User: What shape does this take?
Amino acid sequence: MFFERDDELERLLDRQMAAREVVEPYLVELVPWADDLTGAYRPPLLKSDLIEIDPRFNSGRMSFRRNRVPILSVVGSLLADETIAEVAEGYGLTHDEAALVDRNREWLATAA
Assistant: This one.
């Protein structure tokens, strides 16, 4: 784990400086909780902040941040040939949220 201080990256364990150009392609931003502990993770592949993994919800499985609907359930409905509109209505999602899952359902089916 690395943290950023004064535009430099330091390794959390021993404060060793890291070459940004080497490690940056592999960095994933963790979402801090209110008490500044790291709690959630947003899959970078989705390029969206709508979905995250948070151990406090759904046993740490991916879910929508807004209403904590499990992604695995949404993927299952889409794989069962429900339309985006049906899925959105059934889970209380917006069309954009259901469409995000639909666009990434192949990856989400294995990752969720």
User: Anything to note?
Assistant: Helices lie at 20-23, 71-79, 84-91, 95-103, 105-111. The two ends are 24 Å apart (CA to CA). Strands lie at 2-5, 8-11, 17-18, 30-32, 38-41, 51-53, 62-64.
